[in-house]
Specification:
The structure holds two protein chains of two kinds. Chain A has helices at 5-28, 30-43, 47-54, 80-92, 106-111, 126-131, 172-180, 193-201, 212-221, 247-262, 265-274, and strands at residues 56-62, 64-65, 69-71, 77-78, 95-101, 117-122, 133-139, 142-147, 164-168, 186-190, 207-211, 228-235, 238-242. By secondary structure, chain A is α/β, with parallel strands linked by helices. Chain A has three domains: 1-43; 46-140 and 237-274, 3-Layer(aba) Sandwich (D-Maltodextrin-Binding Protein, domain 2), CATH 3.40.190.10; 142-235, D-Maltodextrin-Binding Protein, domain 2. Chain A starts with a helix and ends in a 10-residue tail after the last helix. By secondary structure, chain B is mainly alpha-helical. Chain B contains nine helices and no strands. The longest helix of chain B has 35 residues, at 14-48. The chains are: A alpha/beta, B mainly alpha. Chain A binds chain B through residues 166, 169-170, 174, 188-191, 195, 198-199, 202-204, and chain B through 77-79, 81-82, 86, 88-89, 167-169, 175, 178-179, 181-183. Chain A: Belongs to the bacterial solute-binding protein 3 family. Chain A: Pfam families: SBP_bac_3. Chain A: It is found in: Cell envelope.
Chain lengths: 284, 225
């Protein structure tokens, strides 16, 4: 998986540290800073109005996290998040300005007013919810058990009795799987994602427990053993991030997401970038 | 915050450690026997076999001795399914360890065999011993006795190297340690513990080999006195 809980914690701490340094620096030039701060708050009183009057929407997207966002061979950003950004801009009838960000600086871009929206495979957690607001879910992100046979299905974890499941040792999916798998399931733990994938592709394990992003990557590389979801272990979909107190913009974004879910746009994106339909529980 | 040691955190995982230790011991005992047995055959055929056989076995020995053990293991476990040969993890570990020990031991044994003076074999034949008898008593057993300490070391190296089989998800002692470490994050305690276990295993193995050697090569030692 891209971000382990520990890795995430580190990046939050790193971010808080940077924020703190910023506050100290601001304190040194107190009068000026306060003046500047209130001016910028006033300018963003209603982000939706600002976007419409500007005729441009600035959206922060990833460039280092395929299939959500990466740089294609034509040097243009491509991915689920980029398509989503295009969809939002088209529907709002404004020009799209893409800002490529990393997972560490995507929230600061939003908070400093350099981006209107962050569409960057952002997951929800209490720390982030204290800092920014979220839209409804726009992209699936989950851990699950996958099979190479699309026709295979299970009612629940009991269906994994007497089967072998490969997983990367110590990853979140290992913990979740260990909790639910019956005793007769053989969980084969491997050192890293690459080895786990090898075990699945070579048929040494019946199933693989991993994230839908990794499953999509396997499907892209080896369509003969393309993983299809059998059982969801943990669901943590992605949300669009926006600044706090932007009710109008939030409502507009949510309206567009609901519309995209309704008319099949989101499922199309899921097909294109994850080689799979949206999971059944998506958006519920 | 100084380092704190807490071996009690290992208590809930005793069954994993026992399972891992059992696998390591069984793997070692079986591969030592099969590996040394195979080594005798390889060493014999490399000296006395047909040219094509000598050439082929030479190739096997050189490939095995000049490639990393983990690559051999991965080839058997992850590579062979590409040819339609699917071998489960524990069997792959047995095969890889046996082939590895056999290749090194065959070379060690071959040195011991080559050291036998030709006249001794001729003398045995002249005394009326059959080919097999003379080979066994005059060449093989003395050769074994000569290189025995090196064989012990080689078998211990393979036992220690068996830690690598945890990478293909064989539940050995190292797999148990990695597993526990991924659950309680007590790396110092768990790796210190298995370091001591491996150390004891190595000492124990040397002891056992010595005892066996004393019995098997008893008359040899009497002769040398």
């Amino acid at each position: 998986m891209g971000t382990t809980p520990q890795g995430f914690k580190d990046s939050v701490q790193h971010y808080l540290k940077r924020l703190h340094t910023g506050v100290v620096a601001t304190g040194m030039a107190a009068t000026l800073a306060v003046g500047g701060l209130s001016a910028s708050t006033a300018a963003h009183a209603d982000a939706l109005e600002a976007i419409e009057s500007r005729g441009t929407i600035r959206i922060a997207v990833p460039q280092d996290f395929p299939p959500f966002g990466s740089v294609g061979t034509d040097l243009q950003p491509r991915g689920y998040d980029i398509d989503m950004a295009n969809y939002i801009a088209d529907e709002m009838g404004v020009t799209l300005e893409l800002i490529t960000v990393t997972s560490a600086n995507r929230i600061p871009y939003l908070q400093t007013g350099q981006a209107d929206l962050v569409i960057s495979s952002l997951g929800k957690n209490p720390e982030r919810e204290a800092a920014i607001d979220f839209s409804d879910a726009y992209a699936p992100f989950f851990l699950g058990v996958f099979s190479a046979d699309a026709d295979e299905s299970v009612e629940g974890p009991e269906g994994f009795a007497d089967k072998t499941i490969g997983v990367t040792r110590g990853a979140v999916e290992d913990m979740e799987l260990s909790n639910v798998a019956p005793d007769s399931t053989t969980i084969q733990r491997f050192e890293d994602n690459a080895t786990t994938i090898s075990a699945f592709l070579s048929g040494q394990v019946d199933y693989v427990a991993t994230g839908n992003v990794v499953a999509a990557e396997i499907a892209e590389r080896n369509s003969r053993r393309a993983p299809s979801l059998m059982y969801q272990l943990k669901d943590s979909p992605c949300y669009i991030g926006l600044n706090k107190n932007e009710a109008a913009l939030q409502a507009e974004v949510n309206r567009l997401i609901a519309q995209a879910l309704e008319d099949g746009t989101l499922n199309e994106l899921s097909q294109r970038w994850f080689s799979a339909d949206l999971p059944d529980n998506f958006g519920s | 915050m100084g380092p704190t040691l807490d071996f009690l955190t290992l208590l809930p995982y005793v069954s994993e450690l026992v399972k891992g230790l059992t696998t390591t011991v069984v793997l070692t005992v079986v591969t030592t026997l099969t590996g040394l047995g195979l080594a005798v055959a390889v060493a014999y055929l490399r000296v006395n076999g047909q040219p094509w056989m000598r050439w082929g076995l030479g190739g096997y020995v050189e490939v095995t001795r000049n490639t990393p053990f983990i690559v051999q293991l991965f080839f058997i476990f992850f590579g062979l399914p590409g040819l339609g040969i699917k071998i489960d993890a524990i069997t792959a570990a047995f095969i890889a360890m046996t082939l590895n020990l056999a290749a090194y031991s065959a070379e060690i044994l071959r040195a011991g065999i080559s050291a036998t003076a030709k006249g001794q074999l001729e003398a045995a034949r002249a005394l009326g011993m059959s080919t097999l008898q003379s080979y066994r008593h005059v060449v093989l057993v003395p050769a074994f006795a000569r290189v025995y300490p090196s064989l012990i070391s080689q078998a211990i190296i393979v036992m220690l190297g068996s830690a690598v089989v945890s990478q293909i998800s064989v539940f050995d002692l190292t797999y148990a340690a990695n597993f526990i470490q991924s659950r309680n994050f007590r790396s110092f305690e768990v790796y210190l513990l298995i370091t001591l276990v491996y150390l004891l295993l190595a000492f124990g193995m040397r002891r056992a080999f010595m005892l066996v050697g004393k019995r098997v090569f008893a008359y040899q030692q009497g002769e040398q006195r």
